[in-house]
Amino acid sequence: MSGFDTHWLALREPADRAARHPGLINSLAEYLRGQDAPLVLDIGCGTGSTWRSLAGRLPAGTRWLMLDNDPLLLDEAARRIGSDDDVTFHRHDLNDVEGLPLEGVSVVTASALFDLCSERFCAALADRLAAARCGLYAALNYDGSMRWFPPHPLDAGMVELFNRHQRTDKGFGPALGPDAVACLTRQLAKRGFFVRTGDSPWRLDADMAELDAELLKGLRGPLIEMSGVSDVAIDDWLAYRLAGLGKQRGSDLVGHTDILALPV
Ligand SMILES: C[S@@+](CC[C@H](N)C(=O)[O-])C[C@H]1O[C@@H](n2cnc3c(N)ncnc32)[C@H](O)[C@@H]1O
After folding, report:
1. What is the pTM assigned to this prediction?
2. Which residue CA neighbors atom 14 of ligand 1 most closely?
3. I need a surface site. Which of 49, 192, 223, 264 has the fewest CB within 10 A?
4. Residue 237's pLDDT is what?
């Protein structure tokens, strides 16, 4: 079980929805319109954010299989999605790539997942996707960039420390962190997929201060774990950043990239 917090997932969902690259969603919908019985497998589905963001934009009758290893998140997804004959739920640990239920699946979707994953996982998944001639749409992969207003001399160092933490094991072996999209692109292109990527940054304006604050508070543990800067410097930097929320004149930015890979 992974223990992702439902409050955090709910808080980020509107920002994720606004950030998703629209051109890739349109291309995904067009691809599914060409499938006889479109079936989407959403891996690491959490409480169903991808379903809520995409369902109305994909062809009517698209069926969804929602997969996660966390039973509490799956229960919450079922509760929030409600009774829908086109949606089923499946508990599965993604480390068992061979056991992924890909039969009849047109496209695997994911959001905020692949930066947690390892290169070995992506290679094994790419093998299975290629064998099944199944596409991949993966949104909101953190790209290693964060920017705040106004700038602070410690910003770059904090991002660097956080990015080092991003590469530690999140349950799949050494995580790709900001390299996730480059790795997926390489792995899928060499298996003959047509791959497109698009930026999907969070733009955190003053009205997104609650998400910005949770994001900053969530950085503390990883920053302290990586050390390299004193705990006092980290806390002073966080206090400075938190005190400025809601007053900034520009958007704080967190960089993400979406990827759509389709079999040709
Ligand atoms: C950051 S959350 C994203 C959830 C959802 N896609 C969203 O955008 O709100 C990552 C998700 O991956 C799931 N996850 C992590 N490791 C997993 C594993 N080994 N097997 C299945 N799901 C996993 C977590 O339970 C969580 O739901």
Report:
1. 0.96
2. 44
3. 264
4. 97
